[in-house]
What we know:
This protein is α/β, with parallel strands linked by helices. It has two domains: about 5-60 and about 320-450, Lyase, Ornithine Decarboxylase, Chain A, domain 1, CATH 2.40.37.10; about 75-310, Alanine racemase (TIM Barrel, Alpha-Beta Barrel). The protein is built from twelve helices and 22 strands. The chain has helices at about 45-50, 60-70, 90-95, 105-115, 130-140, 150-155, 200-210, 230-250, 280-300, 310-315, 350-355, 445-450; strands at about 20, 30, 35-40, 40, 55-60, 75-80, 100-105, 120-125, 145, 165-175, 195, 215-220, 260, 305-310, 320-330, 335-340, 360, 370-375, 385-395, 400-405, 425-430, 435-440. α7 crosses α8 and α8 runs parallel beside α9. The structure holds ligand LLP. Ligand LLP binds next to α10 and α11.
Amino acid sequence: MSLTPVRACLYTDEAAAVPVGTPWPASARTTPAGDLTVGGVDLAEAADRFRTPLYLLDEDEFRARCRAYRTALPGAEVLYAAKAFLCSALTEWIAEEGLGLDVCSEGELRLAAAAGFPPERILLHGNAKSPEELRLARRLRVGRIVIDNLAEIPRLAALTSADAPQRVLLRVVPGVSAGHHDAVRTGVAGQKFGFTVAGGDALAAVGRVLEQPGLLLTGLHCHLGSQITSVEPYLTAVDRLVELLADIHARHGVQLPELDLGGGHGVPYVPPAPGDAEFDLDEFAVRVPVRLADRCKRHRLDVPRLLVEPGRALVGPAGVAVYRVLAVKQTGDGRTFAAVDGGMSDNPRPALYGAEYSVRLIGRPGAPQTREVDVVGRHCEAGDVLVRAARLPADLRPGDLLAVPTAGAYQLSMASGYNLVGRPALVATQAGRARLLIRRESVEDFRTREVSR
Ligand code: LLP
């Protein structure tokens, strides 16, 4: 991926500031004094100002990633998957960068609409859309709705007419297994999303949709899984989906003009070791359209327009989390634990999926010697581990600050109220300025939701 924006370094002593490299944002700079800046903002200063745990989002990194997708895939429509993380500022950046938005709930839809996101560029999907969500989507005039089950067909048809049709896609399961964990592999049968291609469920559902005068079927939709590091699964999906398009053409005489391959493009969470698989956007951008054109030619079909829905690949590397160390404990069996002021309530991914992360000391130079440390959270579970077996300076002590990169996707969006710790604040960094986007959640926030006792 060519995702390195050319940025001015905002240090006064520019020679001393060096880029940090993968998996940090391209703007990340470090100095011998142990300072780390992102978007020109000193993370230790931000931690003092906004308190910890703190999440930072590098606006330029996010925008550069949006542009990289649009440049690499000029013929395709790129929709940001809101589930990775959404807030009003981000919605504006997405609109300005010319992307569409994939939402999967009334909350995401309402937030985007309230922020002024163009509704025709919104796609709503989900395996359990409520009648209210469908009504809201129609009222707001969202561009596309992805049909995931048979019940939705008459339900949506009742809200539409031939004069005011709704553009819809059909979610299908191509039978391709991909993704970092069983819990996120959605391209295979035996999970809750979509209609299977094998066995004919998808073909039968197409027939049902085509019977509805108010539904304009524009294409097929699939999502294989998440944190996929190879292009191969997408090529197999293209093969299977084009076969289905050919069957649809043969059976119903229609050619569908759109093909949505979902998201799932992986990003590095730890510095890549030689030989590590990494998702390559440029390879995807060349091989997928070539394969699609080739398979369509074989089946004598018009080539449909490609849609992609990356979430993590746009926002993940733009985020950094900062924690304060509250205790360092050495146990009898020779292990060292650094307990920080956040944990599984702001990042459930290690506990849920065994996800790996990088971590580094910031705010002071550390001792040159390192030791193996488990960075653990503050929650009441032994499984509340943020980074297992990290190498950190041997003099790590309470009061130190630790920064975790690749924190932009599926962390704040999956954060919980566990132990009433409260979800962290989010700050945008850009050109040396730190802008508070979301304030920290307080006990008052929890209390104000209580209506009786
Ligand atoms: N489109 C659809 C229909 C999806 O279901 C998803 C993610 C995406 C796009 C975006 O996928 P991405 O490009 O962000 O991988 N909580 C898990 C990830 C769950 C992904 C769910 N669907 C994690 O933290 O790894």
